[in-house]
Amino acid sequence: MIETIKNEWFSNIRGDILSGIVVALALIPEAIAFSIIAGVDPMIGLYASFCIAVVISFVGGRPGMISAATGAMALLMLPLVRDHGLEYLLAATILTGVIQLILGVCKIAKLMKFIPRAVMIGFVNALAILIFLAQVPHFVGISTLTYIFVAITLLIVYIVPRFFRTIPAPLIAIILLTAVVIYGNIDLRTVGDLGEISKTLPVFLIPDIPFSLETFLIILPYSFALAIVGLLESLLTASIVDDMTDTESDKHRESRGQGISNIINGFFSGMAGCAMIGQSVINVKSGGRGRLSTFVAGAFLMFLIIVLGDLVVQIPMPVLVGIMIMVSIGTFDWSSFTYLVKAPKSDATVMLVTVIIVVATKDLSKGVIAGVILSAIFFVAKISKIKVTQLERKEKIVFQVSGQLFFASVESFVEAFDYKIKNQHIVIDFTDAPVWDDSAVSAIDKVVVKYRENNNKVNIEGLNESSRKMVDRLAVS
To answer: What pTM does this model have?
Structure first.
């Protein structure tokens, strides 16, 4: 236990602290922007990012992953805030956490094994595109100086790590270029232009709403949607960070941790949140590996707001934009172009569909669910091919069935037999054909009945144990 705590918290102190500082600086404009999307005060997003990051650093299952307020969640909140107000959002956040905690206890993370690699690649690429598109309004068409500072930031973040790794390059870019802008009196858009930041800590409160069935029914649909999207994004991001760091994480603990963090977050005036792939990539690439990096990200975020608020609002947006553009470049799986050529057409199609739907709807859950369903359809189509071979053996006619017999292949199975045969001993051999469902048993019944109508003797052979049990239980003939 003590060894685990040392490994997860104190095995990379310098790297975790520095990377956490970088993430905290990158969280501020994102949290403010997501608050605006949700239709709430900027401090709601900042409080959420602080609470979730700090709590998840203790209870999460993926060390080094950053969780906070996110755009995908903010989009789902907008109708609730518009129609019922902030207090209902806070109550929905708490209920979101309760649902996630229950799903975590039920080990919902086991469903991750049903997400194909093509969907994962599509998910990552779609997020990279969304991260880039989110930066476009902050630098396109604003000023020539904006383009120059974005370009300088990109150069610093790209070149500095090749010669110097003691301090993360994004942190160097933020400190250096902010100083240049402040002391050079250069006119650029800053963090303060996004929204007003107040120097106050979140306080514990119970949402001021009627505690009634009507209220519960109002917030339940939003909470359930937020819970599912939050867990889906968190578990997928955890898998990506696993691959980046070549380590394993406890997905069940992460699911429970997301629930606990949102419950606490809701009582401290925060909007529901989940894992953030962009900030998680920044953290890992800046040297963050342990829980300390996530804790520092949340704690330093509040330190920046409360103590250094006047300085934080002067951070130029082009610098943060440049960092996030580099994150999007690093997140995108550039081998996908080779994958499109070499992978089976079905997998390539699934990846493209996932990307297109996520980017078009800005809803990660829709894209991932569509990708999983499409993969399932392609898989079913692939294994639904069944072959029936007719042989004659010692006064018997043997039909050898090969393939998977289930609802998608029963039509081909029934049509494959020659029903003109009369007065014969017929054997249907299922040695190479497992029987999977009631539709398959019904199809076998249909074939047997057709042959018996022509005065044939019919025997079923070669069924494996599970297929035999199913046929014995469900067969009519």
So the answer is: 0.77
